[in-house]
């Protein structure tokens, strides 16, 4: 074959590659690869990767291949916002999703809105994400603090109605929002009767958690609520164990993930009460066939169990695919219309993207961590949780009037803008 023909064929292959890239649908994953929420970030990446791989193996989205382009937020709002701008302006992504911090998600979502893209919030729990800071281009798959607290409150009031509580809270928007919501649903708003200690975020040290727990130990509280997440929760819960506080206090963690539980360890986790929208054993307990298939596929491919974080990222990719196929386009305005009010079932029972605030309504489960001997029976030593209560998404979420009250208090329009 002569040199001219080789050059011609090379040019054709190069143009074909460029055409493939031009025709692909690009999704930007903005997640914490490093920092205190890195374990949750890894699960997001694996869940998203699996969804993209499955979709491409079955023909892509409307016949177009899907690319996953990733950026590391490090858990920093400014970095997350800059990543979002770069993903849209330089990489040309059609949608951005991710986040394990509400502050990062809120900042990133505003950048996506200004550039005409949807931002799907993954693991973001502050009420503000789809409340006071909500807008037309933000959709949140994860339950907010109000929903979590509603589920917790139902269980705690039935079992610890007359107890004194103490709150140890991360000093940022998610921590404030979650503590406020749990207090509301447990009738523990009086700070004099039910004390609190704040810990710095994102730069808390062991000494900060130790000092806060000394305050809890000095109180008469019998319920200790750790409004912490990621590595912060892990460090604090280990200190709780070392200080012997579990012997006289019921430990409550408003938001738990499998990764956090594994880092703490089965012995220390035993008896801890928490909430989750999904964990890998739930599809088996409630016979959700699609959820079971996801667990098997994820476990076989990555040699670990998926957490709620992986399930959230996986579900977001599929929800975007379904919205594009229903709309017949990747145009953001058309996708917003397709998502608003849409109900579906994927890895669990029915979920809905609520129209007025773009909050995903879904069942929230209250779980209690099992004894160690039960946890380690699982092949991957990951069978941590038993469901002790649950609440439907519609029952758990704010009403329109309550949501509008939050918007009014923040001097925001009473409809998404």
Automatic annotation (TrEMBL):
<dbReference type="InterPro" id="IPR028081">
    <property type="entry name" value="Leu-bd"/>
</dbReference>
<keyword id="KW-0732">Signal</keyword>
<feature type="domain" description="Leucine-binding protein">
    <location>
        <begin position="24"/>
        <end position="370"/>
    </location>
</feature>
<dbReference type="InterPro" id="IPR000709">
    <property type="entry name" value="Leu_Ile_Val-bd"/>
</dbReference>
<keyword id="KW-0813">Transport</keyword>
<comment type="similarity">
    <text>Belongs to the leucine-binding protein family.</text>
</comment>
<dbReference type="InterPro" id="IPR028082">
    <property type="entry name" value="Peripla_BP_I"/>
</dbReference>
<protein>
    <submittedName>
        <fullName>ABC transporter substrate-binding protein</fullName>
    </submittedName>
</protein>
<dbReference type="InterPro" id="IPR051010">
    <property type="entry name" value="BCAA_transport"/>
</dbReference>
<feature type="signal peptide">
    <location>
        <begin position="1"/>
        <end position="22"/>
    </location>
</feature>
<keyword id="KW-0029">Amino-acid transport</keyword>
<dbReference type="Pfam" id="PF13458">
    <property type="entry name" value="Peripla_BP_6"/>
</dbReference>
